[in-house]
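Lab notebook page, bench 4
Experiment: in silico fold of construct C2
Operator: M.H.
Input chain length: 447 residues
Purpose: comparison with the prior construct
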Amino acid sequence: MKHKVIAASVVLLAPLTACGGTAAAGGDGSTVTVTVGYQSRTINTVTAGTLLRSLGAFERQLNALHDGHTYKVDWQDYATGAPITAQMTAGKIDIGSMGDFPLLINAARGRQLGRPTHLVSVTGYNLRGGLNTVVVPPGSDLRTLRDLKGKKVSTSVGSAADGTLVRALQRAGLDPQEDIEKLNQQPAVGASALTAGSADALSQFVAWPGLLAFQGKAKALYDGARLDLPTFHGVTAREDFAEKRPAVLEAFLKAQAQATDYLNEHPVAAAEKVAAATGLPAEVVYLYNGAHGIATFDPAVKPGLVAALKQDVAVLKTAKLTGDIDVDAFVDDRYVRKALGAEYDRRIAAGPPAPASEAWPKGADRTVAFKTPAELLTYVAAHRGALRAAYVPDTTTGTLWFADKAVWVADGTRLLPFVAPATAQDYATAHPGARVVSYAEALERAA
């Protein structure tokens, strides 16, 4: 965990102990520390964390308040949402970002402990659920979810990835409690377990599935988008902090919108910034956060995401992680509405970009987009060794994946990519004459 303060002059401060920010003696008698909990490697939160921090947008917004206070920002980096919730309910974090299932636990714990919190904005989302993926070792012979019966599956209980695993297993006719041995592990621990062979599969959120696939340490077994249920990450704030310092929260949300615009307007540069700050490969960051990435970034709290949050409550209740949760009381978009003004309604109405194939040439500060995966393959075949990465959207779900890690199907003259083998086989079975082909054969056909 990192504890740093970012300001015009960098000062290390003590942890927050009082609600609404720490006030300490300063030149004018009022220095306020705002403590932000974020997850640097959970890259769907970058517009409220890693990228926002690197751009300095929040600090600039605070400096523009001119309200007699001097502001310092204490950025605290965590691996998951659970410790952020623990610190928020202890009054030690003012603003935090996390995934949808952890957000619900955040809501429940806040109410239970008398420190209510509220969902105030969204970071990254995928309307079909593609942010979560189940992966297996590269040499695994497991090809469908039903093959997981009796196997050890690593996930982080209470996370969005756990929710995906539970729902996916149920749809496959398996009992998530009885038919698998679930290993409750932090993402990094689960990734190591998969590599070491002590876990047969791993269900995780961004950026772990893409990272492991990129490194050649895993392959996809199940694309979370097959659930066709929205999943997202968002920003939560303590109620007492928001009420005491609404201008500070609005400044944060204005800065988040600026970081969102930067990411959408400069996706390659944003990926490079996040990669530099996290140690993740930029190619993996771009898979999720790129121009046609798995995640769409927008701070607006869309009704469809709130509806999905209500459906998530049942999963957490069944797992005995929470009781009933009043989602409507938890959601509070007043501050982001005020921060964005008339722009908010436009953002509410905006949807994700259309899926597209992309190639990232070495040394380039932008990618090349293609209308079809076959066109991308033709380009790749002509530029072997000259590309950092190539990406294609799953034919049925739209989930972006690395072209060389995708499962390819030849259907007549068409070359169609899929994230997972079961999805590809389902397509081939439904289309007489279609067959699964290797990536090498797909390249040959395209060339």
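Observations: The longest strand covers residues 117-126. The chain has 18 helices and 20 strands.
Next step: discuss at group meeting.
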